[in-house]
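G., the chain you wanted modeled:
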Amino acid sequence: MVSRVTRVGDGVAGATVSVRRATARDARRLTRLVRGSRAYEGPYAPMIAGYRVGPDYIETHRVFVAVATGAVATGAVTTGQAAGNAEADAARTDERLLGFYALVLDPPELDLMFVADAAQGLGIGRRLVEHMTDEARGAGLDAVRVVSHPPAEGFYRSVGARRIGTVAANPPAVMWDRPELEIPIPVVAVAVAVTDRGGSGGAPLS
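Predicted structure as tokens:
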């Protein structure tokens, strides 16, 4: 899944954006993205205080990252920054982390999804959900549960999720109720070509 960001002023204009499987080496960057997210400022801050996306978590679950390459980024987390490599950071030629998601298969749940503050409004969240849907379908799932950050409920509804309940607050880390949603995983119809015995060709079934 590769595309190009073209909007001027988005911080990654002209970059090629792709989604790839995360590796253990991404752990520090993913942790930094989570802890620095403005979506969890104020009363929501305790939920991510000290949160860590570790290498073991990445290796256990299906974790994918959206990255940009080929343009100067402003605010996105680069490999050089995460590693503390001054030379790489100065060059700013490494891939830029735009967001990530983590899919747990048993039971099926979208456990994490974050988009970098600098990449908000670029369609990265929708791209990640689309990718997650393909992964879930390939794993034979028919639905994926989401316990949403309250301000993100509207986003999940906009990509097809439906509300199925409420998860009660769990103080002190989670002081508020959270919407419980489900993303249906539609089956993709496959066209089958039918050929007559004479070998004269056929047409896909509709």
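The longest helix spans residues 124-138.

Shout if anything looks off.
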